[in-house]
# Entry
Amino acid sequence: MAEVHSGGPPKAPSRGPFATACRAFRRDRTGMAALVVVALCALLALAAPLLAALYGKNPKEHYGQNRPGLLSAEGLPVLPNGGISGEHWFGIEPGLGRDVLTQLLYGMRTSLLVALASVTVIAVVGIVLGVTVGYLSGLADRAFTFVCNVMLAFPTLLLLLALSPVIQTRFVDPGENEPVWMQFTSLILVFSAFGWVPLAMVLRTAVRGLRERDFVEAARAVGAGRRHIVFRELLPNVWAPVLVHITLAVPGIVTAEAALSFLGVGINEPVPDWGRMISRGSEVFYDDPTYMVFPGVAILVFVLAFNLLGDAVRDALDPRIAA
Amino acid sequence: MTAYLLRRVAQAAAVLLAITAVAFGLFYAAPSDPALIACGPKCDTAQVAAVRHSMGLDQPVLTQFADYLRGLVGGRTIADVDGSPIDCAAPCLGYSYTLHQPVLDAIGDRFPVTLSVAAGALVVIVVLGVGAGFVSALRRGTVTDRLLSGFTLVGASVQIYFLGYALQYLLVYTTDILPVPGWTPFADDPAAWAAGLALPWLVLGFVNAAVFARLSRSQMLETMHEGYVRTARGKGLGPLRAHLKYTARGAAAPLVQLLGLEAGALFGGAFITETVFGLGGVGKLAVDAVVQNDLPTVVGTVLLAAFSVVLFVALADLAVAWLDPRVRLA
# Structure
């Protein structure tokens, strides 16, 4: 249609919105650095078994108890700084004497698995509900708003805390040990149950703005059905807020999962978990502060990188709010 | 304004009713048998059945819910494990068979701690967060702005359960700058009260201030170039006065709303902070209740937290309507 509007300024070679965003993102040095850190974390988590094999340790063996000279009689590392040595680079866990580096690596797998799975569910549910409700309006819209208001008023952390045991015990016979996949499933379910609300609310608002635009009107005029309009016309126009929301949701879920484990409900032993490492560290932090530093700093770096990445994605997709 | 007020109150009441229903439903979705827990491991089947009856657990769920609501409004009498009546005054949140006291009393005992923690943290949040946002908006692009932005980014990413212990190690254990965090009633010794809570205030405030700093910075930047601020500046008003008087008011609405949400969440109990510093507030009560399967207390604390959020969000909405007349006309 460019020919019709002749007389304007000479046009730059036209690029799609995705290419424009990618260009903007590549120019953002902080964002690129954050992307590198995030990619590195993902790589480390993926390659954890390989790295552990190269390093010659595993996260489950109680080195400190099996080998003399590593832990004192009180269960504290003999060597200074949490038992850091050429053998155990990040030291060993007080008490059980496990290797901290492999625990950290495998703990990242736990965090990332829960976060990525939850985010996938959140994205699907949030998109379907948000876009549909935004398009429908009327009674459905009012019901949706009410449900969202109720969900938002709940103390999320406390509810997560109270719900995890409920879900777990619903599906596990008493006296039976809970399988690991069940713990993961229940955590993912709980995070998804609350996580979709903000995304759906954002999309509802976005779609309400798009609904009255000419291209939707045109689709309706040529007789397109509701399904076509929702999935083919509206959905492709809201991927930007979805992408931003998902990037920023990952660190939120990672910290929530760690918080649950810190408070005592979450992934159980012996699956490595950052939150539980901090919880264990808090019991001995006057005697062995080093042990808590590693999971604490790991969460900080991970969350910081994801937050920076989310900011960069948002700036790239929406140049108006870029600083 | 009256119509707006009424509509807002009706909305809040409907949300609260729905929350009560859901929280109560969770109580029944819970796997554990409250009667079994209340009775203890020594009870035989007949005794558990008797306890179940005295607790009203053999009634249909809807009847029990109606009883709960009635108790919430007008108080009720609850049967103890041995069948003796317990008077539970309105608003009755049920009776904790673990703590052997009405849930409301258990919350009331611990509320001063939560109130003190939340109030102090809110002061830190507002001063630190809004102050940092205001300064970095005025000094946009300078080193100060970038330093403050970096600071808030760390604040947004660091976890209370890490920062709390780290600061406790540095400021209490190794250097004695602050006393060991703990609770002293304000009436007993105000100085000890403040000293014992200084670290929780600082940690909770710093972590939560980040969001405020970022929001207030972007709000300020957006409002700074509005026509009415430019007019005020054009009339010769100095930058600081113009921004304090006009920009700040124009930028305040989303901040007030965020503050309402934050205050609501904090007054419902700071679960992690109270656990980290060993403070016996409502948050610790809730966490303990979950761990010990004390369901009436879980439901009670969930309701209190939800009520707090609904109340403060409604208050914030009213404040915004007062600040910005465009809202209440919409």
User: Anything to note?
Assistant: The domain at 19-61+99-322 of chain A is CATH 1.10.3720.10 (MetI-like fold).
